[in-house]
Design a protein that fits this description.
Length: 612
Amino acid sequence: MQTLFKNIFWAIVTLIIISFVFSGVLGTDRAEAPQKLSLSQLADRIAKGEVQTITIRGDELSIKLSDEKKAVAEKESEIGLTETLKNFGVETAKLGAVELVVENQSGWQFWAGILIPTLLPLIVIGFVFWLMFRQARTGVNQAFNFGRSNLRLSNFKEKVTFKDVAGLKEAKEELVEVVDFLKNPKKFLDLGARIPRGILLMGPPGTGKTLIARATAGESNVPFFYISASEFVEMFVGIGASRTRDAFMTAKKASPAILFIDEIDAVGRQRGAGLGGGNDEREQTLNQILVELDGFDRDTRVIVLAATNRPDILDPALLRPGRFDRRVVLDLPDLKDREEILKIHSHGKTLTQGIDLRKVAVRTPGFSGADLANLMNEGAILTARRGKKTIGQEELFEAVEKVVLGPERRSRVISVKEKEITAYHEGGHALVAAALKGADPVHKVSIISRGIAGGYTMKLPVEEERLRTKKQFLTDLAAMMGGYASEKLTFGDVSTGASNDLREASELARKLVTKYGMSESLGPMTFGKTEELIFLGREIATEKNYSEKVAAEIDREVRSFISHAYDVAVRILKNNKAALKKVAVALIEKETLEQEDFYGVLKPFKIRPIAI
Ligand code: ADP
Ligand code: MG
Ligand code: ZN
């Protein structure tokens, strides 16, 4: 609304300026406000011989009197001036003494004189209406845009290329091929190859799906149309399908082109799966997408890219050959890729010389590209807050924890007793982990509360791993129980600080039994059928496909896993009471122990890790 007022203001200012300019041009001789004479007065003056020249411009007469003064008069149109004057009784001789100049007024001045006063108001009114109309269109009210797709030609501000995308090798290769096809279709068609139509990018959120699609646009130099599927089903029923049609038509007209449908799961969910009638709209949109994809000719040079982080809920019809038949999986980055992503996002930031991004990458397993980008940003903010000039290793490490656990809450007042309990609790976790063969090394122990956690122990796997074994899970469980065991052993009491550990341990133990088949007595079998409830898109219903007896057996097994883990933790802590005390004291004093500090404290105790 504000811009509207501003526009009107400027329109008025412009108008005023224009009218000043024209009044200057047209009204130059009005400057000394000449006397206005009637025709009879004029005739009178002529008869007295007081008139030097008369300039006739249309019906206007500019008169120069003999005393150099100026006057104006107006004659009747149709009739010539001489005749008029004669009618007023001026003698011909007197008239002959007056110099008559006839100026032809056919130039722009004439037209401007007529047009500007009539047209200008119209133009101004039209302009104001146009402004209001435009405002209405772009504003909240998009009603004028009905079934048009919000298709955007890629006008991304900065151009992104594959260089800006770390890792994702397979995805890049696939997309390079697509770009190649768009550029040289003949090469493929001559060999009888069918052109890929749809490529589906799948991967967890933040793995760079949108980014790599943008990079493809940057590399290919063909028109790149972008639409988010959620925009298909925005406001009005029945719009989705026509928007889809519109989007495909626009892309085809511009071919060779790439059409990118982001977040396609918003419309591509399995049909007939939701509850109620609310998804009709989505179904129609999806059907339209299918129709459009099928309608491609053999040599239509439009490639449809789509991205989703829920490939599992997509309608199978979308994945059929000839539609989104190529699927590219974007995984969470591994160690090497994480380092590279960090490197990419350190461009334009000043890092302290000799900083080791690999060390940061080591601490961030499971981070997505987006998390890593966020981490670098947090590092920069932290540095600025500390008034430093360059981002240091320390700031980045802190940023890792901030991204994982939330900001430190140093200000939270904790009593001496609370601090002691937390120190023994975290010390318990760390010590159990350190005393078990095959457990992940401890990277950091801290009793500074962060987010909702009272303190934390950071353990990280030595290598990137995709598989985890039962032995590893058992050491994990024991380490999880370390906090609880330590509290119980030291104080003979337990606090609420362990509740999170207990919940995690119980969930893990249950998974071992029901999902991974790691229980001896129940054997290699899974229990419970997890049904995706499509309309919520989350795992919420687990169908019980086993008997009550088996259910009781599962509970018993879960309990046995946990109690075994607890026993192991207690045994370790009992055998290393002095070490536990030393760690706890060090924690109370320093609050945070880095990897070297922690293992330094343990060194004199010569702990020999035991197998579980
Ligand atoms: P999504 O897969 O959810 O579409 P995005 O493509 O939007 O994820 O990624 C979000 C941000 O994360 C990107 O803008 C980029 O800054 C960062 N990012 C993700 N993956 C990478 C990567 N492989 N290389 C560099 N930056 C990445
Ligand atoms: Mg995205
Ligand atoms: Zn704990």
